[in-house]
């Protein structure tokens, strides 16, 4: 399954058996890729094992003598992701391979005897499982599609137990180791305190105070899913250490991580100069095609279908204007007739009131006038109704033409946006290629 980065920590006081807790939980780990390897998907799994001994990083899976091993350093990429260099990553095919390398590295860890533990861990250890999944995704723009890469990391961290020098009676190297162990745990506690209190989250988080907190930066307040196991001793003599460990874990549970999936296209994670050059040439070709298509569409005369649509739209506009003018004139005439009708009725009523003896003749005259005017009004109303129907049809046709024109403008806008995106991707690839070539030149110089 595709997962975000995941970290499992085991911590506690010296003698609480934290390392055994970590080893006991590891067999439950099963890595099952979402799809079996095929033409459309592929995956690789790698493991690495490092320890922090006296604030120095040691590769536990490198069989070379310490003097011949490359130095292990902590780096941060442009996106703020933490990674380390100089660490040997071994490809594995099964859970048995993972457990074998875990046991191999554990045997190489620094251990020593103290008054509290006959075989005490003298370092913090980080066992990492990296899962890289690649899935082929069809692209509607690119017929060939593209590979989408998902990175998942599982960090299993065994923190050395906190030590009180009075109880361990450590001397010499054991004493120095205990001081460095406690310094790393103190720095981790400060980071946990800063992250667990909302009032301090906006302030500076002291990740750089130790290499332990630097390596766990993504797991503490980052984009990983983190599980912390607090190991305590049931013995009454260890009551103080047990209480401190529980307080430590209580603060850690208040940290809120923002889990994200690490997915990217293949060109974003590939440093091969030949691959990047091929991508640049491909994008250049696509940009030229888009530019030529845009230029030809703007310079070439419109197709017969487009010309027909433009003519129909112009005719619709002109017809619409004519109908609107006719409707306006007809309404004005209708208003004039209605005004005259009201005036004549007003005069008739006036005559009726002034001369009752002429009332029958006045009534007849008024009725005759109504009979004469009504056909004219009906004719005007029919004309207005017909013109309004025609106007509605023309408006519908005009709306359709406007919609077609808007669709064409939207397509042009999408093409322009695609061209700008490809131009940006091309710029990013050129920058990445330049950095890759600079690294090659630097390596050749060495």
UniProtKB/TrEMBL annotation:
The keyword Hydrolase applies. Keywords: ATP-binding, Coiled coil, Cytoplasm, Hydrolase, Microtubule, Motor protein, Nucleotide-binding. Signal peptide: none annotated. Residues 8-20, 290-317 have a biased composition (Low complexity). InterPro entries: Kinesin-like_fam, Kinesin_motor_CS, Kinesin_motor_dom, Kinesin_motor_dom_sf, P-loop_NTPase. Residues 1-255 form the Kinesin motor domain. Pfam families: Kinesin. The keyword Repressor does not apply. Gene3D superfamilies: Kinesin motor domain (3.40.850.10). GO terms for molecular function: ATP binding; hydrolase activity; microtubule binding; microtubule motor activity. Residues 419-446 have a biased composition (Basic and acidic residues). It comes from the Eukaryota. GO terms for cellular component: cytoplasm; microtubule; microtubule associated complex. Residues 1-37, 289-332, 417-446 are annotated as: Disordered. It is found in: Cytoplasm. One of its GO terms (biological process) is spindle elongation. PANTHER family: CHROMOSOME-ASSOCIATED KINESIN KIF4A-RELATED. Belongs to the TRAFAC class myosin-kinesin ATPase superfamily. Kinesin family. This is Kinesin-like protein. The lineage of its organism: Eukaryota, Fungi, Fungi incertae sedis, Mucoromycota, Mucoromycotina.
């Amino acid at each position: 399954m595709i997962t975000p980065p995941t970290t499992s920590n085991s911590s506690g006081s010296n003698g609480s058996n934290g390392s055994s807790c970590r080893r006991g939980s590891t067999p439950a780990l099963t890595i099952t890729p979402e799809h079996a390897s095929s033409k459309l998907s592929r995956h690789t799994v790698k493991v690495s094992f490092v320890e922090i001994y006296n604030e120095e990083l040691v590769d536990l899976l490198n069989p070379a003598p310490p003097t011949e091993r490359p130095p292990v350093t902590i780096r941060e990429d442009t996106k703020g992701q933490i990674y380390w260099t100089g660490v040997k990553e071994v490809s594995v095919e099964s859970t048995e391979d993972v457990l074998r390398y875990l046991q191999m590295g554990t045997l190489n860890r620094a251990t020593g005897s103290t008054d509290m533990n006959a075989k005490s861990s003298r370092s913090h250890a980080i066992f990492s499982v990296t899962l890289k999944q690649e899935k082929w995704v069809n692209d509607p723009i690119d017929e060939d599609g593209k590979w989408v890469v998902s990175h998942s990391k599982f960090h299993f961290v065994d923190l050395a137990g906190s030590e009180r020098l009075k109880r361990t009676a450590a001397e010499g190297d054991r004493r120095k180791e205990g001081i460095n162990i406690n310094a790393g745990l103190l720095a981790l506690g400060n980071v946990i305190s800063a992250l667990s209190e909302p009032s301090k989250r906006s302030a500076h988080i002291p990740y750089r105070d130790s290499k332990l907190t630097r390596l766990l930066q993504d797991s503490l307040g980052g984009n990983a899913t983190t599980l912390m196991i607090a190991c305590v001793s049931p013995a009454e003599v260890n009551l103080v250490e047990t209480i401190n460990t529980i307080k430590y874990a209580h603060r850690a549970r208040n940290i809120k991580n923002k889990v994200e999936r690490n997915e990217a296209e293949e060109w974003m994670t590939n440093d091969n100069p030949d691959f990047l050059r091929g991508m640049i040439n491909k994008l250049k070709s696509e940009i030229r095609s888009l530019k030529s298509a845009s230029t030809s569409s703007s310079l070439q005369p419109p197709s017969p279908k487009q010309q027909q649509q433009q003519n129909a739209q112009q005719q619709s506009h002109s017809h619409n204007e004519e109908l609107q003018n006719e409707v306006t004139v007809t309404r004005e005439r209708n208003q004039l007739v209605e005004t005259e009708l009201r005036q004549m009725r007003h005069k008739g009523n006036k005559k009726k009131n002034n001369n009752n003896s002429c009332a029958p003749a006045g009534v007849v005259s008024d009725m005759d006038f109504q009979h004469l005017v009504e056909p004219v009004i009906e004719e005007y109303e029919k004309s207005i109704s017909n013109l309004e129907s025609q106007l509605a049809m023309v408006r519908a046709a005009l709306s359709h033409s406007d919609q077609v024109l808007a669709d064409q403008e939207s397509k042009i806008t999408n093409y322009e946006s695609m061209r700008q995106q490809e131009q940006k991707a091309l710029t990013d690839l050129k920058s990445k290629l330049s950095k890759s070539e600079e690294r090659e030149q630097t390596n050749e110089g060495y």
